[in-house]
Amino acid sequence: MTIKKIFLTGANGYIGGTIAHLLIENGYEVSGLVRKPELAEQLKNLGIRPVIGSIDDGALISRESKAADAVINTASCLDPFLIDTILQALKGTGKTFIHTSGSSLLGNKDLGERSDFIYTEDFPLTPRLERVFWINMNNKVIQAARDGIRSMVIVPTMVYGEGLGLHKESVQLPYLWKMSREKGKGVHVEKGNNIWSNVHVVDLGWFYLNMLEKAKAGSYFYAENGEASLKDIARAISQKMGAGDETISVGIDEAVAYFGAEMAHFGLGSNSRCSSDKARAMIGWKPKFDSVFDFV
After folding, report:
1. Are 113 and 203 in a shared domain?
2. Alpha-carbon dihedral sign for residues 266, 267, 273, 275
3. Average pLDDT of each block of 10 consecutive residues along the chain (296 residues)?
4. C-alpha pair distances (Å), 142 with each of 1, 48, 91, 219, 278
5. Which residue range(s) make up the domain with 74?
6. Do 282 and 179 share a domain, yes or no?
7. Are 68 and 149 in contact (CB under 8 A)?
8. For residue 34, is it within any domain?
9. One domain, residues 126 and 15
């Protein structure tokens, strides 16, 4: 099936906007879901056909999904109504659906301690209670391949770098920078020895294009091209601030109070280490950026 028209949720977001930019550069037509009418003109200026509405508008999501050759979801990894609406709209069509998850699903409540285990896609996941729903959601998308949908899941790691769309910044690094500025030095949770795999947002955008063009129905991929401990990232922040190599350890209780339990435990205090060898071999992904420290 020839893929020309893409319906993209989260088109004004950090990842979604970058994907849209690359899609348009490579000859695809992109329709992008956006909640705020005032952003419509900005999306038009980027070459995106704005679709004004929310992920809760089932009729709109269904109509746009059916009109497209492929759907890419970057708006919400955890909204079952959105995902079910898309899957029902695409059932039996052979069309493509790429769902965006996140690699915090690999995490435990590690409290800044290091783990040496590196996940591959073949390793079965037995997540903590807080991540069971994530795994079930991903599995439902993958299993939709049995219903005549070229469905697949991508699991980005810590994303960094400047986005190519309306939204330029990632999530985890700005959180760390905010608290670090307040304290005068780079911060990490507890010991900060925990490690996260990472990927540049432009390399991640190309990952989606490779999946769109080459991946098989039912595919599941991790997206990474390097890794770093949170303490080393904190040290790099300190250096950028002119504070030398000194860092500040933030206890988990303070981190939860400041960042919220979700971000403190699974976004900043956990390990999330995985390999993208499968994507390099199967869909020809060739990332160019391999050092988060160049972009902290």
Report:
1. yes
2. positive
3. 95 96 98 94 96 97 98 94 98 98 95 98 91 93 98 98 93 96 98 98 98 98 98 98 97 98 96 98 98 96
4. 19, 28, 13, 7, 16
5. 5-161+199-225+276-287
6. no
7. no
8. yes
9. yes
